[in-house]
Amino acid sequence: MDENDTNSSQVDPSTKIHQVRWNDDMDGFMIIALVNQVLVGHKRSDNGFTSFQISKAMESVKQGCGMVVTEKNVRSRLKTLKREYAEVSQLLSISGFGWDAKTGRITTDSLAWEELVKGKPDFGKWMSKLCRRYDDMECIF
User: Fold this and answer.
1) β-bridge mates for residue 9, sequence order
2) What does pTM read for this prediction?
3) What tens-digit pLDDT sequence spans the chain (141 residues)?
4) DSSP character for 103?
């Protein structure tokens, strides 16, 4: 785990919503639990995962990290991860871009990054940002 990754939870006093700061370990336990649900044949509903499947992810995060998360926390995190997965998928559809499963890094040469960022500056974050579980996310999304 990265030293900057911490799991914390806090309640926003203005909204009384239990907010969770996710770390890589928490993501991993949640994603693997959902991959297992998909692999055992539990179909996703039209609008995502069922409450039963989400409860399995919640249990996995609690058992693996000792962190209690709510269904709302998991659904919110999945929304973020799905958006990141879509961005990485877009990058990988571009000729010359690849993904290194060992490092979780998007690979290409510096000229390709330079050209991409000219037209799509938001994608520049992927020059340093990691996507460690792309294969697993492909399974669940």
Assistant:
1) 20
2) 0.83
3) 443 444 455 544 555 557 899 999 999 999 999 999 999 987 776 668 999 999 999 999 999 999 999 999 999 999 999 999 999 999 999 999 999 999 999 999 999 999 999 999 999 999 999 999 999 999 998
4) T
- 140 in the Ramachandran plot: left (φ > 0), alpha (ψ -120 to 50) or beta? alpha
The percent of the chain in helix, strand and coil, each rounded to the nearest 5, is 55, 15, 35
Report the b/e string of 87-101 with b at 16+ CB within 10 A. Answer: bbeebeeeeebebee
CA distance 36 to 2: 25
Interior CA angle at 82 toward 57 and 22, to 5°?
50
12 within 8 A of 47, measured Cβ to Cβ = no
Contact 73, 20 (CB under 8 A): yes
Give the torsion through C-alpha atoms of 104, 108, 109, 113, to 10 deg: -90
- d(CA 26, CA 112) in angstroms, rounded, equals 33
- Quick one: which of 25, 29, 21 has its CA closest to 57? 29
